[in-house]
């Protein structure tokens, strides 16, 4: 019995500390940055803990856990409270993004998905020279003939493919080589970036991750920004939320799909680390995701209206 009471107190303290860190934006160091990925699952733990406390007659602690559960719920509510939207007025644009797992993703399967989904833009991360060649052999050029590619060995290469004309470039000052391009949609000039940040694990990788996020374009920059890719962060990381504070909108949040996981590899629970961020005259109205062999990241597809 004493052991159960002690474990109960540990759970209460842990849940309280982590939701406090989340709301206060104190997740800037290890292990709090990494722990934020568990927030949606800790919300369920807090609810279960509340029920157990009341069932065990511990009413005061139970009422406290009710407040903790509400705090978790408030953090999650904006991610699913909005329903799918009808298509807004403007040009339609379908964008796709996927992390290719250091060139290990199934290139043929990806091109088959492109043929079925018919995106206007594809952003890829962890693009190696070999994977770029495999995509070319699989026929990606038949569907997305324009490209701006910055392949590299390991996990630092990225690329952009499109149906329309691209004016190529790159974003400097980040740990990965980020492909960047301009594309016109009607009267709107889109500034596209295939985003891949460092994974914040231990030591200097945390500083690299924060630096990568800070180096991304802001809505104040010329053109209309559209960021697609693997941000290695979620809505529970203050560094990622700062992008929204600057004026970006997460396409998945806009349509109530903010809890849809895009990464599934142990020991990380299924979690949304891949995002499409819009601003200004670009609005999301539908989100979908598909599995792809050879990578733990899912293909994320967003339907946008531009205008």
From TrEMBL:
The chain crosses the membrane at residues 7-26, 32-54, 61-81. One of its GO terms (molecular function) is catalytic activity. It comes from the Bacteria. Pfam families: Exo_endo_phos. Keywords: Membrane, Transmembrane, Transmembrane helix. Residues 96-294 form the Endonuclease/exonuclease/phosphatase domain. The keyword Metal-binding does not apply. This is Endonuclease/exonuclease/phosphatase domain-containing protein. It comes from Actinocatenispora rupis.
């Amino acid at each position: 019995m004493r052991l159960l009471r002690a474990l109960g107190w540990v759970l209460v303290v842990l849940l309280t500390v982590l939701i406090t860190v989340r709301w206060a934006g104190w997740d800037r160091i290890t292990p709090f940055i990494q722990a934020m990925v568990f927030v949606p699952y800790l919300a369920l733990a807090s609810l279960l803990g509340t029920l157990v406390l009341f069932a065990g007659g511990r009413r005061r602690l139970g009422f406290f856990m009710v407040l903790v559960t509400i705090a978790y719920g408030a953090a999650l509510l904006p991610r699913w409270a909005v329903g799918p939207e009808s298509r807004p007025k403007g040009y339609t644009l379908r964008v796709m993004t996927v992390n290719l797992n250091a060139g290990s993703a199934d290139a043929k399967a990806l091109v088959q998905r492109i043929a079925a989904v018919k995106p206007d833009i594809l952003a890829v991360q962890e693009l190696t020279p070999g994977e770029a060649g495999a995509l070319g052999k699989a026929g990606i050029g038949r569907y997305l003939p324009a490209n701006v590619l910055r392949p590299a060995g390991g996990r630092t290469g990225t690329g952009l493919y499109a149906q329309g004309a691209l004016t190529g470039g790159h974003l400097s000052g980040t740990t990965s080589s980020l492909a960047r391009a301009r594309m016109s949609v009607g009267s709107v000039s889109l500034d596209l970036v295939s985003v891949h940040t460092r994974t914040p694990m231990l030591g200097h990788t945390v500083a690299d991750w924060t630096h990568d996020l800070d180096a991304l374009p802001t809505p104040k920059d010329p053109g209309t920004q559209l960021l697609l890719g693997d941000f290695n962060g979620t809505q529970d990381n203050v560094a990622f939320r700062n992008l929204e504070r600057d004026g970006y909108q997460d396409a998945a949040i806009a349509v109530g799909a903010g809890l849809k996981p895009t990464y599934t590899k142990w020991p990380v629970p299924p979690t949304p680390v891949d995002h499409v961020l819009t601003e200004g005259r670009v609005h999301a109205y539908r989100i979908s995701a598909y599995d792809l062999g050879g990578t733990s990241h899912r293909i994320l597809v967003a339907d946008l209206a531009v205008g």
